[in-house]
TrEMBL record:
<dbReference type="InterPro" id="IPR051941">
    <property type="entry name" value="BG_Antigen-Binding_Lectin"/>
</dbReference>
<dbReference type="Pfam" id="PF22633">
    <property type="entry name" value="F5_F8_type_C_2"/>
</dbReference>
<dbReference type="GO" id="GO:0001868">
    <property type="term" value="P:regulation of complement activation, lectin pathway"/>
</dbReference>
<keyword id="KW-0479">Metal-binding</keyword>
<dbReference type="InterPro" id="IPR006585">
    <property type="entry name" value="FTP1"/>
</dbReference>
<comment type="subunit">
    <text>Homotrimer.</text>
</comment>
<feature type="disulfide bond">
    <location>
        <begin position="74"/>
        <end position="83"/>
    </location>
</feature>
<keyword id="KW-1015">Disulfide bond</keyword>
<comment type="similarity">
    <text>Belongs to the fucolectin family.</text>
</comment>
<keyword id="KW-0106">Calcium</keyword>
<feature type="disulfide bond">
    <location>
        <begin position="55"/>
        <end position="72"/>
    </location>
</feature>
<keyword id="KW-0245">EGF-like domain</keyword>
<dbReference type="InterPro" id="IPR008979">
    <property type="entry name" value="Galactose-bd-like_sf"/>
</dbReference>
<dbReference type="GO" id="GO:0046872">
    <property type="term" value="F:metal ion binding"/>
</dbReference>
<keyword id="KW-0430">Lectin</keyword>
<protein>
    <submittedName>
        <fullName>Fucolectin</fullName>
    </submittedName>
</protein>
<comment type="function">
    <text>Acts as a defensive agent. Recognizes blood group fucosylated oligosaccharides including A, B, H and Lewis B-type antigens. Does not recognize Lewis A antigen and has low affinity for monovalent haptens.</text>
</comment>
Length: 241
């Protein structure tokens, strides 16, 4: 018997050659409270090929023409049977550009370090600064959320040029997926005690590469933390996500 509205059904054997069937529509199946409660019933249902979707969140499940199976149509930069492989194919793509930022103090000003402007002059309006008053008694930090986990290869940082270059005289770059301790407990890229000369742009290479979503610049100087630009680049590779 064919019934277009039937999504599932219950079957109960009454006698040797007699069965009682209860046809269920989709809403009844999805809401188990509407199902007939009887331990003698066996429940059968038609499997929806794309429910749940096998494509994770990186693709769209498409049902084939006869409705018996589904396959994943992956979004751009993803591949694999379940779209589980992320393709990183552009070594010059800046993953930090215009991404959400935060910092220990003055949290709303961190975006200036990811606006795509390397101008090292404070007057350009493109350099960050953490709080200056009251007097700073502990090191400052700045963080960017890259929006996804990437295989990070290098970080490019531009220091202020018209003043106060020593503020980037001793810092570390932390990368990982944890926000515990503001992300400061994540692995370190390129070692500790890093520095960028006044007004210059310097590249720090992560060897070996580190995968992570959050990048933190942690200052070891008890002073204002100023960054005129932070750029983040990935290795060209395919990574299971």
């Amino acid at each position: 018997m064919r019934n277009e509205d039937c999504f599932s059904f219950n079957v109960k054997k009454i006698s040797s050659n007699l069965f009682l069937c209860e046809l269920l529509n989709t809403s009844k199946f999805l809401d188990s409270e509407n199902l007939m409660r009887d331990e003698n019933f066996a429940h059968w249902y038609l499997q929806e090929p794309c429910s749940p979707s096998p494509c994770e969140k990186h693709g769209k499940c498409v049902v084939n023409s006869d409705g018996t199976a589904g396959s994943c149509k992956c979004f751009e930069k993803y591949e694999g049977k379940r779209c589980e492989i992320r393709i990183f194919d552009d070594p010059n793509f800046n993953f930090a550009l215009n991404k959400p930022t935060s910092q220990k103090t003055r949290p709303n000003g961190g975006w200036k370090a990811v606006d795509g402007n390397r101008n090292p002059a404070w007057s350009s309006g493109s350099c960050t600064a953490t709080q200056t008053l009251p007097r700073i008694t502990d090191p400052q930090w700045w963080r960017v959320d890259l929006g996804e986990e990437i295989p990070l290869s290098r970080v490019v940082i531009t220091n202020r040029g018209d003043c106060c270059g020593a503020r980037l005289g001793n810092f570390a770059i932390k990368i990982g997926n944890s926000l515990d301790n503001d992300g400061l407990s994540n692995p370190t890229c390129a070692g500790d005690n890093l520095s960028v000369p006044t007004g210059q742009t310097k590249t720090f290479v992560c060897t070996p590469w580190i995968r992570g979503q959050y990048l933190v610049v942690q200052s070891y100087v008890n002073d204002v933390l100023t960054l005129c630009e932070v750029e983040v680049y990935a290795y060209t590779m395919k990574m299971i996500v």
